[in-house]
Design goal:
Chain A is an alpha/beta fold. Chain A has ten helices and eight strands. Chain A folds into two domains: 40 residues, Monooxygenase (Up-down Bundle), CATH 1.20.1280; 178 residues, Ribonuclease Inhibitor (Leucine-rich repeat, LRR (right-handed beta-alpha superhelix)). In chain B, a hairpin with a 5-residue loop joins strand 1 and strand 2. Chain B has one domain: Potassium Channel Kv1.1, Chain A, CATH 3.30.710.10. By secondary structure, chain B is mainly alpha-helical. Classes of the chains: A alpha/beta, B mainly alpha.
């Protein structure tokens, strides 16, 4: 007869390394087998990053995750319901948020998201059909998240000079900006964001490729216009 | 550091397993064990090193792994061919009994061989992947020590992951 596996021979940090190779579903299965593994699955180091994209995330799901999210650094999710639910994670130390697909989201939702995550350094937002999003949302992001270093926005069609000037004023560390399908990006205002090192712009009608205003930003090392 | 009198001769180390078997390995193989590399760099490596947590059966496998990796990396072949070769070797090397795999993982952790540790962890993880709770319990011989209340709580905690 084949011997049974005795996983208790493995030290805890080895089991944690093993768990880090598994997705949440598999971790959940392990967590549900016995007390020891339940405790190990809760280990802080396994909850530095959370990718909720394949899962349905509503307020009650987010609330059930809150106890593990105190030290969460990176978060990825999709959908407007998740965007509103994220606040229930109480992940106040988040450094990075990526929203892969979001529609029907409002200025208010985005502003709340920004206001609750002041430590944000990287924000990537992919918005679709968000007619209700105005430049105010970006202004709120700029004011609430002064540590921003990287900002990638897709489909924020109303972004104007006001919002970009707010970025220039409140986010001194902003180095990497991407505006994709943001129709009203203003090139003169862009020139005011002197901290920028990497710029990527696509499907935007307002930027003239002469980039005269941008050349004013003497510190601009590299510019990519897609 | 190696002594100046033995510049041309390959330095060897004797590794003694838990059950007293002695293995002779060249320096290029020994340094793959991070614990030994640190001893060598700190200039406190003796030619005879006892490894108390590893049996001879497992140590033989560990040495086979390190030897192959050391030879492939210094063999002068192009990086892509070496990579392919190591991949094939690793795959075959992992084709062992699950208990051996567990011992290997534990040894790689103790001896601090990063690539072998990651390889065994990945392989063990692939064994657990997509199994039900009952299957995992059976596979790892884990007893369900939850109370009814706890079991309910843990199910609730992770309900989202199954959606």
């Amino acid at each position: 007869m084949k011997d049974m596996l005795d996983w208790t021979r493995l030290p805890d940090d080895t089991v944690i390394q093993l768990l880090s190779c598994l997705n949440y579903r598999d971790r959940a299965s392990l967590s549900s087998t016995c007390r020891t593994w339940r405790i190990l699955v809760k280990s802080q180091c396994l909850w530095q990053a959370l990718d909720l994209r394949p899962h349905k995330c509503d307020a009650s799901v987010a609330a059930s995750l809150a106890s593990r999210c105190a030290y969460l650094q990176k978060l990825r999710f999709r959908g407007p319901e998740a965007a509103d639910a994220i606040i229930n994670l109480q992940a106040w130390s988040l450094r990075q948020i990526s929203v892969d697909g979001c529609w029907k989201i409002s200025d208010a939702s985005l502003s709340v998201l920004a206001a609750q995550h002041e430590a944000l350094e990287c924000l990537q937002l992919e918005l679709y059909l968000c007619e209700r999003i105005s430049s105010d949302a970006l202004k709120a992001i700029a004011i609430c998240c002064p540590r921003l270093q990287k900002l990638r926005l897709t489909g924020m069609r109303e972004i104007d000079a006001d919002a970009i000037n707010a970025l220039a004023k409140y986010c001194p560390n902003l180095m990497d900006i991407g505006f994709i399908d943001c129709r009203k990006v203003d090139e003169i205002a862009m020139g005011n964001v002197v901290s920028v090192r990497f710029l990527s712009v696509a499907r935007t009608c307002n930027i003239k490729y002469g980039i005269t205003a941008l050349e004013k930003a003497a510190s601009l090392d590299r510019l990519r216009c897609l | 550091m190696s002594s100046s009198t033995e510049l041309t001769e390959k330095k060897v180390f004797l590794l003694k397993s838990l059950d007293g078997v002695i293995f002779e390995v060249e320096e290029s193989v020994a340094v793959q064990l991070e614990v030994i590399r640190e001893l060598i760099e700190g200039d406190c490596a003796r030619p005879f090193i006892s490894l108390y947590n590893v049996t001879s059966e497992i140590l033989a496998l560990v040495i086979e792994y390190c030897k192959h990796h050391a030879e492939t990396c210094s063999g002068g072949t192009s990086a892509t061919i070496a990579d392919e070769d190591l991949k094939t070797f690793d795959n075959e090397f992992m084709n062992v009994d699950e208990n051996i795999l567990l011992e290997l993982c534990s040894a790689a952790d103790y001896l601090d061989i990063k690539s072998l540790f990651e390889l065994t962890c990945r392989t063990l993880a692939s064994l657990i992947k997509d199994r039900t709770i009952i299957e995992v319990r059976k596979m790892f011989n884990v007893e369900n020590d939850f109370s009814v209340v706890e079991e309910k709580a843990v199910r609730k905690e992770f309900a989202w992951a199954f959606k």
